[in-house]
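Case 399 in the screening queue. Each case pairs one protein sequence with one candidate compound; here the compound is PMT. For every case the pipeline is the same: read the inputs, emit a complex structure as tokens, and attach any notable structural observations.

Predict complex for case 399.
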Amino acid sequence: MDLKDKQILLGVTGGIAAYKSVELLRLFKKAGASVTVAMTESAGHFVGRTTFEVLSENPVLSDLYFDTESQVKHIDIALQADVAVIAPATANIAGKLAHGIADDALTTTLLAVTCPVVICPSMNSFMYENIRVQRNLDILEQDGWHILDPDSGALACKTTGAGRLPEPWYIFDRVQALLTPKDLKGKKVLISAGPTLEAIDPVRYISNHSSGKMGFAVARAAENRGANVTLVAGPVHLDTPVGVNRADVTSCEEMARAMLENLPDADIIIKVAAVADYRAADPKGSKIKKRSKGRDLNLSMVENPDILKQIGRQKKTGQFLVGFAAETDDLETYAIEKMEKKNLDMIAANRVGEPDSGFCADTNRVTLFFKNGNSKEIPLMEKEQLAHILIDSIIEQMG
Ligand code: PMT
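Case 399 output:
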């Protein structure tokens, strides 16, 4: 889901982590949101209002008396916001908000909001653990505001512990999840992603170019929409989407085991992984030595289990099974053939071998084919956005 048409109120208070709120603002803007920044006077000691003004393309709310516009506007901004995010939130702001104190532009605006509020505490670890601060955060949480726990680690004040503002991508992800309708709540979604890697010897292997981006995007989207997600991942270099249970595997046989183990509980199964169809018949225990000049090496290969076909055979009534088809040509014929042979409810066919779609790209272009004979063409777009459209179609088909 992108954040187009969403109004975000970004509150910035005076902590060293205020620089991270600049990146957070950029992420919100990139996702299409309209952002208004409200900052405290002390936040201005860390990041200048001009930075926020330029990047948000909106006036910054910082002084109720001297910003002529903000005298009335702060109530409009509060009422129009779809979400308010305070990052970083100091002990001071938590204390004021917990006790209904409104003595500056940010606090007066926040006391007027009716939307969800996300508080991202960031401070020295002793301050964070102080019973008074914890009590104030508890009050805010009990009142229905969302508290994002700070990260632990080295802090600017030279101590180590809890108090670091989480990375902007994490805050962005949690805000996005909060704004996403929970239409998969109560559903268990099992997803495979990435390549498999089939050993030839301890040094070499057979694999493919799958980066895992498409499958991870589907996992993230499903989690954001309220599902309990298990992601079986081949070897990829991607962070686990927040809130997703991840099982790492290497070979097709390992992936088959992990998928079949999780299958009985799953309501929706989406196989995005690019599985190697063959593996070495006799993987060697030690490195195969280079032959003398002129002598070729012949590798004998055996067929790997077709995981999707196996799942299609075992599928119970009520389980919805989705496959992906990676094709270089004759997309429709091959995709429909795979859907029928593997007993799928839906298949997403993407052309591979093009720079902007399929393997490794951040974007993809697919055609969805459904068991009932219908199809839907999805134009080129970010994999993150495509993942949501894929889920929309699954929900529609499941009725
Ligand atoms: O990971 P990215 O870099 O983001 O790239 C995304 C992607 C191109 C890998 C993805 O969009 C995609 O197309 N995935 C399917 C790749 C593939 O293996 O397609 P296939 O046409 O060979 O297989 C058809 C289906 O059968 C797939 O769902 C596959 O997971 C499954 N299969 C295939 C072989 C096998 N032995 N077991 C399987 O389960």
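Case 399 observations:
- The pocket of PMT is lined by residues 194, 210-215, 252, 271-275, 277, 304, 306-308, 323-326, 338, 350, 352, 358-360 (CB under 6 Å).
- The two ends are 21 Å apart (CA to CA).
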